[in-house]
Input
Amino acid sequence: MRNTKLYSVLEYFDKKELSQLKKYLESPYFNSNKDLITIFDLIVKNLNSTKKDKPFEKIQVWKSLQGNKPYDDVRFRKYMSDLLKLIESFLAQKVYEDTPLLQATTLLEAVEKKDLEKIYNSAMKSARRHSDKYIYRTANYYYYQYQIELNYYNLTDLEIKRTEVTNEREMLLNLDYFYLAEKLRVFCSILSRQYLIESEAELMFYEEIVNYVKKNNFDHVPAISIYYQIYLTQTDSNNKQHYLKLKELLNEHYHLFPPAQAFEMYTPAVNFAIRMLNTGVPEGAAEVFQTYKELLEKESIIKNIEFSPWHFRNAITAALRLKEYDWTENFIQEYRHYLPESFRENAVTFNMALLYFYQKKYDKVIEKLRDIEFEDFTYNLNSKTMLIATYYETDEIEPLYSLFDSFRAYLRRHRDLPVSRRVLYTNLIKFTKKLTKLTFRDTKGIQKLREEVEATKNIASRNWLLEKIAEMDW
Output
């Protein structure tokens, strides 16, 4: 039973949600099969049990339902399927109940379909009232507005009342706002993912939408203006003005979006600053650090999200570049609980190792990283990069060369990594290996290696390599 989809889904529910789900299942309107309630109760009992070493098999559940009747797998699978469908309906019902504006627009649609003129006015007032109270201005907000205007348009019975003043303009404007904001959001998401994973997604109407937004002023629709600015930071990555304008818009309008979406909107600003840092722009680290500090100050966002491991690492890396060692240690301890539980231990381990590396406590770095294989490939790449630098700094040549070989094998094995990223780390291995073969007396060799590294832009830890070459040229 523990390996079933049904069991794994219920593991995600907390006690309050399980209690609400039980009431839902006990409602005759939603469920008339009491056997499904029995199955639910048995699973919840097992979920709460401290004796997880004891078996919990399908046949045990069957006996609770059917006594000594022979086990019927087809029928049991039907039980499980029916219960899972009810749970899915419960989840949808929860979203419906938690979104009053969605309820109001759905009611308008029902009134229009049933032609219930007597409750039309109250339904419309309710929709308008919930619209006024809706604090967020996401793309969905404009979709709900469109639904309200559409139902109003339908309810005016225009075929009969041809002289009525209509709301066509409001209806179409809200539909356009929804479409433009949502299209831009999806465009930006795809562009962001293309940096990490090769993608061939077809962006329909891409140029038309971008050009339309460029030619028109949408300052009054933050969902459009912000995502357009995000698009500019992604596609015109050398223009710092796009990044500064994006931060200005975010700091002004972040409260108009749910915490998770507001956090997502800050990510391109962080990414732009990180590109500055990675390309050697002097103020890059300071920009990354400042952007994260601004984000951390917005408690309405931070207290309602999980901090992704890569955001956690980026904030720490920028702080360490600025030698903010105390801030880094405090940050790791204070915000570790905002990390997803499944990533928390590895993320904390890696970032403590990174802190030790910057503090030149190399023995602690090796102790932290030597025998760990991280699940996330970004952490893996950075962990191996840090170990390369650590082994070099401590003159551990034998483990360093062993790491070169295993790292190359890792890069060959993971063909889903974009070619550009594989090149970064392949070059790091190549040039670090050349560095180990130089001596202080080899002036020509040192100069040649410096020129090669300076001429090659795509190298992970390029600044570190140049620093080590400079140390040899005394």
Summary: The CA atoms of residues 153 and 166 lie 7 Å apart. Residues 196-200 have pLDDT under 50 and may be disordered.
